[in-house]
């Protein structure tokens, strides 16, 4: 009587099919390692891009795939230890084929344990992603090249304004030298030297700023007060706009720090201001507003809920259609005439914001202008600011002057003295700022300005805020001013040009 045949179990059949499937995969190297890292199985994918036949590799230690540099650093043993202790090891790096050539590998190692938790070995999956890695490196090189191109393009647009600034500084120095040659009066000599020194320092500061802006360097993110970065770059931003356009700054006090690369941030901000300029043919206003904002989940695309520093650039230009907005951040997309734009500016700014873990949003309507908003994750405040006098919390001052150079100098002086500074370049904007910021303690304004004069501004401001402290600055003789404008006697006066000591004395008198 014949013995009945023994049929394989269903589990055994499925296990064999699974083994054959794994062994036949060609896009991935899938193989098993012993607990010590010795290769015990080898599939078709591993043979295809590593070059070893199973007979050559089974029984060998998997460290032979690593570069000499990684082996010297103990990388293979580290990989197994992480997989054993953490439950998985993932990595990317160079690996070596049988012929000695290198490929960029994506690696996953998982520990295999029995029901009692005893380590049986490791499952290792490797994929050759050399082409993807090369493409990513090429994209990064292209991105850096585009960034440098944009900086050069922006600097080219600023050349006329920079030349104007330097001509003014050179004129001050040349005239001062002439006075030194002609005069022996110690007061004139001292004043000429002081004036030339200030001009030279301003020229040096402008040169340092341009060199910092134009230098080539990798992305270096560090915590920065974005308001302070903008203040130091304000003169360049103003020079990017023609005389018939005005830049208005609204910078929130006590901004939390944010992780940015200041050089790339400045380049991106300048691109936004230049774009706003190009959108307004016949003049207009560009508003640069920086504030802290709390976002809910999904309130802004791609951003988690949390606190952010928002940098908003708004113009009064022609606006964009929905179709244009949909493509606005695409590289090389532009609506400008040939030779007037590369289509890289907004794309670069968008990429910069994303690298800083933030994003860029667009709002626009045809005929109503455009608003570009950059969001950067806010970092925790380190410690409260302290005023020059040592008290917690600085007094807020509003500076008003229609001359950008004079306004910039005043901002620097007041900031040095420990004040929180807001600025405006004409009377109407100053009144709007006073209404929005009821905590402004001091109004410091030039007397002679186009449109609303400083005296008219001060009178309107006092009507709006009776307790407001007011200082008016003028180059005219005080007695003449009081004679011609009697109402000026209601306000504190300071004569131009004023020194830091003059400013301190006047502010103390308040």
From TrEMBL:
<dbReference type="GO" id="GO:0000155">
    <property type="term" value="F:phosphorelay sensor kinase activity"/>
</dbReference>
<feature type="domain" description="PAC">
    <location>
        <begin position="89"/>
        <end position="141"/>
    </location>
</feature>
<dbReference type="InterPro" id="IPR000700">
    <property type="entry name" value="PAS-assoc_C"/>
</dbReference>
<feature type="domain" description="Response regulatory">
    <location>
        <begin position="396"/>
        <end position="510"/>
    </location>
</feature>
<dbReference type="InterPro" id="IPR004358">
    <property type="entry name" value="Sig_transdc_His_kin-like_C"/>
</dbReference>
<dbReference type="InterPro" id="IPR001610">
    <property type="entry name" value="PAC"/>
</dbReference>
<feature type="domain" description="PAS">
    <location>
        <begin position="14"/>
        <end position="87"/>
    </location>
</feature>
<protein>
    <recommendedName>
        <fullName>histidine kinase</fullName>
        <ecNumber>2.7.13.3</ecNumber>
    </recommendedName>
</protein>
<dbReference type="InterPro" id="IPR001789">
    <property type="entry name" value="Sig_transdc_resp-reg_receiver"/>
</dbReference>
<dbReference type="Pfam" id="PF02518">
    <property type="entry name" value="HATPase_c"/>
</dbReference>
<dbReference type="Pfam" id="PF00072">
    <property type="entry name" value="Response_reg"/>
</dbReference>
<dbReference type="Pfam" id="PF00512">
    <property type="entry name" value="HisKA"/>
</dbReference>
<dbReference type="InterPro" id="IPR000014">
    <property type="entry name" value="PAS"/>
</dbReference>
<dbReference type="InterPro" id="IPR003661">
    <property type="entry name" value="HisK_dim/P_dom"/>
</dbReference>
<feature type="modified residue" description="4-aspartylphosphate">
    <location>
        <position position="446"/>
    </location>
</feature>
<keyword id="KW-0597">Phosphoprotein</keyword>
<dbReference type="InterPro" id="IPR035965">
    <property type="entry name" value="PAS-like_dom_sf"/>
</dbReference>
<dbReference type="InterPro" id="IPR036097">
    <property type="entry name" value="HisK_dim/P_sf"/>
</dbReference>
<dbReference type="InterPro" id="IPR005467">
    <property type="entry name" value="His_kinase_dom"/>
</dbReference>
<dbReference type="InterPro" id="IPR011006">
    <property type="entry name" value="CheY-like_superfamily"/>
</dbReference>
<dbReference type="Pfam" id="PF13426">
    <property type="entry name" value="PAS_9"/>
</dbReference>
<dbReference type="InterPro" id="IPR036890">
    <property type="entry name" value="HATPase_C_sf"/>
</dbReference>
<dbReference type="InterPro" id="IPR003594">
    <property type="entry name" value="HATPase_dom"/>
</dbReference>
<feature type="domain" description="Histidine kinase">
    <location>
        <begin position="161"/>
        <end position="380"/>
    </location>
</feature>
């Amino acid at each position: 009587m014949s013995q009945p045949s023994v049929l394989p179990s269903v589990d055994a059949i499925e296990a064999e099919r699974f083994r054959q499937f794994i062994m036949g995969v060609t896009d991935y190297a899938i193989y098993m390692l012993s607990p010590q890292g010795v290769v015990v199985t080898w599939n078709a994918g591993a043979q295809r891009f590593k070059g070893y036949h199973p007979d050559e590799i089974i029984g060998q230690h998997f460290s032979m795939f690593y570069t000499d540099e990684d082996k010297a650093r103990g990388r293979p043993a580290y990989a197994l230890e992480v997989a054993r202790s953490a439950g998985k090891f993932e990595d990317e790096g160079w690996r070596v084929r049988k012929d000695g050539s290198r490929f960029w590998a994506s690696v996953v190692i998982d520990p295999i344990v029995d029901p009692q938790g005893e380590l049986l070995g490791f499952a290792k999956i490797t994929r050759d992603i050399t082409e993807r890695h090369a493409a990513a490196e090429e994209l990064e090189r292209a991105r850096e090249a585009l960034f440098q191109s944009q900086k050069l393009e922006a600097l080219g647009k600023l050349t006329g304004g920079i030349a104007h600034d330097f001509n003014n500084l050179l004129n001050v120095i040349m005239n001062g030298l002439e006075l030194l040659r002609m005069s022996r009066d110690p007061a004139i000599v001292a004043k000429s030297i002081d004036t030339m020194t200030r001009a030279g320092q301003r020229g040096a500061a402008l040169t340092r700023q341009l060199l910092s802006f134009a230098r080539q360097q990798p992305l270096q993110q560090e915590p920065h007060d974005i308001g302070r970065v903008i203040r130091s770059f304000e003169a360049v931003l103003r020079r990017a706009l023609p005389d018939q356009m005005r830049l208005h700054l609204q910078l929130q006090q006590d901004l939390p720090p944010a992780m940015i690369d200041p050089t790339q941030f400045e380049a991106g901000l300048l691109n936004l201001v230049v774009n706003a300029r190009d959108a307004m043919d016949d003049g207009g206003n560009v508003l640069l507003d920086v504030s802290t904002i709390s976002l809910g989940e999904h309130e802004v695309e791609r951003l988690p809920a949390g606190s952010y520093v928002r940098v908003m650039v708004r113009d009064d230009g022609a606006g964009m259609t929905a179709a244009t907005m949909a493509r606005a951040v695409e590289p090389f997309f532009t609506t400008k005439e040939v030779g007037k734009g590369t289509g890289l500016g907004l794309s670069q700014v968008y990429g910069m914001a994303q690298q800083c873990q933030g994003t860029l949003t667009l709002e626009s309507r045809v005929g109503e202008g455009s608003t570009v908003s950059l969001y950067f994750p806010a970092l925790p405040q380190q410690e409260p600011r302290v005023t020059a006098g040592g008290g917690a919390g600085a007094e807020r001052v509003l500076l008003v002057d229609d001359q950008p150079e004079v306004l910039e100098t005043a901002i620097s002086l007041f900031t040095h003295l420990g004040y929180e500074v807001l600025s405006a370049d004409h009377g109407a904007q100053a009144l709007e700022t006073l209404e929005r910021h009821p905590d402004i303690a001091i109004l410091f304004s030039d007397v002679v300005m186009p449109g609303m004069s400083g005296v008219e501004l001060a009178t309107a401001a006092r009507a709006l805020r009776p307790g407001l402290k007011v200082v008016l600055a003028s180059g005219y003789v005080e007695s003449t001013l009081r004679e011609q404008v009697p109402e000026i006697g209601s306000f504190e006066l300071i004569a131009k040009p004023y020194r830091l000591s003059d400013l301190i004395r006047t502010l103390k008198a308040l």
